[in-house]
Design a protein that fits this description.
- The protein is α+β, with helices and mostly antiparallel strands.
- 33% of the residues lie in helices and 26% in strands.
- It folds into 2 domains: 139 residues, Fructose-1,6-Bisphosphatase, Chain A, domain 1 (2-Layer Sandwich), CATH 3.30.540.10; 108 residues, D-Maltodextrin-Binding Protein, domain 2 (3-Layer(aba) Sandwich), CATH 3.40.190.
- The longest helix has 17 residues.
- The radius of gyration is 18 Å and the shape is globular.
Length: 270
């Protein structure tokens, strides 16, 4: 059994020492795909690789700051277990001095996340989950609860940038929710939905290191998620996946129905 307390401390200490001193002071550059990377991203990934190897030397690490061919080969080889790491989720926020970013670490075994930890060093909030043991924020358990609102009264966390143009336009012109937010850290979005800090969620394209830990945290909090095609979100592949989610089942089904997704009748929902 993996020592979750040791893992959390490794992640917390690394983030506090590698990210916070560099916050809003790191040079930024653009990767080939147009996304932003800073010195903090690479330093944090190197730190986690070294620290995790001390305690779990036989578990390889797949990190965002690796070339795609290596990433895909690691998943294709079906290595189990495998660390899946986003060393700095919300790099654009980080580089701009916006205090909303996180570290995401998942352990993937048999093509499923079996450990998920997302740490927000600014708020000192550590979200974590293990299958069958629930989801937590620090020492407080996260759980499904009735938000007491209809879809029309919800706060939605939505990343418009990566949505199909027609869907983004429909949402902008005829929003089914009360208000919308886009914070800039996918991993924290999952955790905030799990914590009830938003009611419904939508993202058009996220990678496995973005959602591996967060999707487990939401599931263990009792939440619901699927892709825009009604499929299970998690897949051991680096290809981008869409995500629709909510903590409350009734809101999830109403959100799916509005989006005209397969499965609004319940047949294909996870």
């Amino acid at each position: 059994m993996l020592d979750i307390e040791r893992l959390k401390q490794i992640i917390i200490q690394a983030a506090d020492q590698e990210l916070l001193p560099r916050f809003s002071a790191s040079d930024r550059r653009e990767k080939r795909d147009g996304s932003v990377v800073t010195e903090a991203d690479t330093a944090m990934q190197a730190r986690l690789r070294a620290d995790l190897a001390v305690h779990w030397p036989d578990i390889p690490l797949l990190g965002e700051e690796m070339d795609e061919e290596t990433q895909q080969q690691m998943l294709r080889d079906d290595l189990t277990p495998l660390w899946c790491v986003d060393p700095l989720d919300g790099t654009s926020n980080f580089a701009a001095g916006v205090p909303f970013f996180s570290v995401s670490v998942a352990l993937i075994k048999d093509n499923q996340p079996v450990v998920g930890v997302v740490y927000d060093p600014v708020r000192r909030e550590c979200f974590w989950a293990l299958p069958g043991r629930g989801a937590w924020c620090n020492d407080a358990q996260l759980g499904n609860r009735d938000p007491g609102v209809s879809l029309a009264q919800t706060v939605a966390l939505i990343d418009f940038k990566r949505l199909d143009a027609a869907l983004a336009r429909r949402l902008a012109e005829h929003p089914p929710y009360s208000s919308q937010r886009s914070f800039g850290s996918v991993a924290l979005d999952w955790c905030w939905i799990a914590a009830g800090r938003g009611h419904v969620y939508l993202h058009g394209k996220q990678r496995i290191w973005d959602y591996a830990a967060g999707s487990l945290i939401l599931a263990e909090a009792g939440g619901y998620a699927a892709t825009l095609h009604g499929e299970t979100v998690f897949q051991a592949d680096i290809k981008p996946r869409s995500a629709v989610a909510a903590l409350d089942e009734e809101l999830f089904r109403a959100w799916c129905a509005w989006l005209a997704m397969p499965g609004e009748s319940g047949d294909t929902l996870p």
